[in-house]
Amino acid sequence: MQKNDPYAALRYPEFRLFLLVRFALVFAWSMQFVVIEWEVYRMTKDPLSLGIIGLMEVVPAISLALFAGHLVDQKEKRNLLILCTLAFFALSVALFFITNPIYANDSSTLYSIYGLVFFGGIVRTFINPTLFSLMALIVPKELYPNAASWSSSSWQMSAVLGPAMAGFTIFSLGTHTSMLLILGCIVLAFVFLIQIKSKAILNPKIGEPIFQSLREGVKFVYQTKIILGAITLDMIAVLFGGAIALLPIFATDILGVGSEGFGILRAAPAVGSFVIMFAVAYFPINKHAGLKLLFSIFGFGVCMIVFGLSTSFWLSVFALFMSGITDGVSMVIRQTILQLYTPDNMRGRVSSVNSMFVGSSNELGAFESGFTAKLMGTVTAVVFGGSMTLITVVLTGLFSKQMRTLDFQEELNQEVKEETEHGEHLVP
To answer: Could you tell me the membrane topology recorded for this protein (predicted)?
Structure first.
């Protein structure tokens, strides 16, 4: 393997299958979320109703995350992901029927959508730690940064195409027919997934009492300050810095660009993230990773402020595109931190703690955005959120020396040295 081989992780056939699975699932999920957002806002014309969508997902994300992590660490990852995929398919079938125009204006439809979103939050609570744990069993540890770049790129590419496709199909076919494409993507994910072999369970404490297992997972995250710092920084930044939940309002009422413009706005951040993460595969960001993380999240906050103040469609698109670039850098660094500093037997629980705080902050951020938009106006809410992100980054940079000095290259060099010494010791 070449030292700077940008395709190192892709040379593993199962990792390529893993990327296809992740792409199909995230494409379907992001497209479905946009379809739900558009349908709910069409029915209610109320920004708070968009925030409630996030709230319906965050309740199971917080309440079940630790249990999901325990279960992932106890079970075989590939088969567990198959069950999650089947549950996702069942959810989408229900949404397909409920978005039928016959029921579109029924008073109970809105509450049924909220209920299905809640069920989807349960499914996603298990999908995230399972995907995180499965990837670590497919590629060797020294390739985690490279694998994280490609995995994040796969996520972002699907996040580019999913919302854009949703905007196009909503405009041309309607929400009901759009759900058929989502169902097809889930079937493709299932087909790719069954081609990956079952993996060994690396947890030596199978059958460990659940509360003891959960306590160890939380304790590990709390004691591993670099993981705790990355989770906390991202949680607060996402909680206050996201404006995605308000995009239907910007597209409809502020910029006046309709469903097609909404699809472009929704895809712009993901396009930026995909572009930068493809570049990261060629130009690794291992050195001075902590400083790069801080600067990237600071830049994200600035982009949110520009977007909030913009009345030009293309300036808004550019601001969201740049927010995707900065978020893409931070995403690769955060994923690499979690992969490098988490032992195999703790991956499910650590990923679940991360999902509970960071993942749920996306939904809480959606609720916060909807609530503050209702309280102080849409533009003011976005500017307020971006400003809070800037304050968070400055405070983290001032008080966290470990974050400022974080360097992946030193960690990887140490890992290679230890493996070399271990190998030499085994030579007869």
So the answer is: Multi-pass membrane protein
Between CA 184 and CA 92 the distance in angstroms is 10
Helix (H), strand (E) at residue 77: helix 77-98
Mean pLDDT, all residues of the chain = 81
Highest mean pLDDT among 40-54, 116-130, 182-196: 182-196
Nearest Cα to Cα of residue 378 among 245, 231, 210, 179? 245
Residue type, 91: L
**CA–CA separation, 334 vs 351, rounded Å?**
11
Number of Cβ within 10 Å of residue 314's Cβ equals 10
Tracing tokens 């990852």 back to the chain, one arrives at 77
CB 245, CB 51: distance < 8 Å: yes
Mean pLDDT (whole number) for 73-97: 91
Q: Measured between alpha carbons, how far is 289 from 292 in angstroms, rounded to an integer?
A: 5
Residue of 230, 342, 331, 359 whose CA lies nearest to 273: 331
Structural domains present in the chain = 10-195+210-423 (1.20.1250.20)
Q: For the residues 80-89, what does the mean pLDDT come to?
A: 94
More confident residue, 17 or 72: 17
Q: Indicate whether 427 pLDDT > 50.
A: no
- Residue at 356: amino acid letter: M
Residue 198 is given by DSSP the state: P
Question: What is the maximal distance between C-alpha atoms in the chain?
Answer: 76
- Please, what is the angle between helix 313-341 and helix 144-172, to 10°? 140
Residue 425 is predicted with a pLDDT of: 37
- Please work out, in degrees rounded to the nearest 5, the angle formed at the alpha carbon of residue 231 by the alpha carbons of 230 and 236: 105
Residue 178: pLDDT over 90? no
Residue 127 CA: distances (Å) to CA of 68, 162, 352 = 9, 18, 10
Cβ neighbours, 10 Å, residue 282: 10
Alpha carbon distance 383, 129 (integer Å): 32
∠ CA 291-292-297, nearest 5°, is 100
**Of 266, 335, 323, whose CA–CA distance to 296 is shortest?**
323
| Burial label, 303 (beta-carbon count in 10 A; 0-12, 13-18, 19+) | buried
Q: Give the pTM.
A: 0.73
Contact predicate 194/206, CB 8 Å: no
* pLDDT tens-digit map of 377-425: 888 888 888 888 888 888 888 877 878 887 776 665 655 455 555 444 3
The CA-to-CA distance between both ends of the chain, in Å, stands at: 25
* Radius of gyration over every alpha carbon of the chain, rounded to an integer in angstroms: 21
How much of the chain is helix, strand and coil, in % rounded to 5?
85, 0, 15
